[in-house]
# Entry
Amino acid sequence: MTQPILTAAIVGAETTRAQNPNLPITAEEIGIEAARCREQGAAIVHLHVREPDGRPSQRTELFARAIEEIQKRTDVVIQTSTGGAVGMTAEERGQPVSLKPEMATLNCGSLNFGDEVFENPFPLLRRMAALIRDAGVTPELELYELGHLDNALILEKEGLLTRPFHVQFVLGVKGGMQPSEARVRLFASELPAGSTFGIAGVGRHQLSMVRLALSLGGNARVGLEDNIYLRKGVLARGSWELCAEARRIAGELGRELATPDEARELLGLRRRG
# Structure
């Protein structure tokens, strides 16, 4: 097994400070939190940004400031979101790709997302995949359902994606696939040869999915974007505390987390900035 890569999703688009007051909002807060997560074993920071009033945003200027603050403090791989928030246009969602981060996410299909619909029709998928490809950015494929992998394979046939695939199974969203070992094993067995996979478990599933991912030779994602609790009824003091718990689980399993540079080598990335 290769070294597992831990991603910290530190902001997101849905979590609010009313839910967890430790959510970082400003560029400086994001930079500080990214460095804390790195100290606890994270190699990648999955990045969303917010307006000063806390509203989710995809503005290039806000991403640029946050990336600058992260790079002042740490060497993590920066992975920008192109998912943004439910209801954003394709133009809004694609803005951070112009900054040419090392990685960017590509959501590979539509789904019910709580009481809303997260729309990712093929015209949008093609547009976003081409944007990421033409910027020379490595995509991480966000798969909420097994059919989303089939969508990615269609994009590959159309020349918009190339192998190896770097995949994140996002499990536990209300309206999407729920987590279980059998489903994860099926998902992983369907991936093209040479692909890497990680699991982002939502809510109470987060840390159990870390254990499952690492036991199956995959990678893991934790952070306040997906889960605000360290354990039932106890708010996490930040994504860094969830990273520390993931590192503890890795230690129990005899797995040493990859450093950012080791993650770059495993994923075929070239460091920027």
